[in-house]
Amino acid sequence: MAAKATYPPPPPYYKLYKDYESNTSAPKPPPPIHGTYVCFGANYTTDDVLPSLEDQGVRQLYPKGSNVDFKKELRSLNRELQLHILELADVLVDRPSQYARRVEDISLIFKNIHHLLNSLRPHQARATLIHILELQIQRRKQAVEDIKRRREEAQKLLKEALGTLEGS
Fold first, then answer.
1. I need a labelling partner for 76 at 20 to 30 A (CA). Which of 39, 51, 157, 158 fits?
2. Is 120 within a domain?
């Protein structure tokens, strides 16, 4: 029985990059892909656009447009969801054969809530990035202050040592 490698060998062009500091003839990497591309037989796009609910074949329960009050609509959908869940419980007790329509209604509400939350993702990403950058700035300012304080302490110690040397 022959031993097999866990991973396949690298492609032969890896040799072009082995001495990357001294080798200036190595080809540049390809430019980033824009638009659509095929990966493992499936088509993908580099455009991150959230498809509308109608594009997905789902009825939209909140108003259309770009000026949606997310907080108000999420609260409204949440109240509606709670009502439908209570109705589902009643239906399961009284008329168990009619539960399918209630489950579909609940599924529709969940899809709408999910879509609203996903449309807030870019805002969340920006806010997270701003927070991270502010923390980095704060840490760097603290590091600069710490360096200044230590420099002043070192200068003070050097002056004291110089004074001691001159006095003796």
1. 51
2. yes
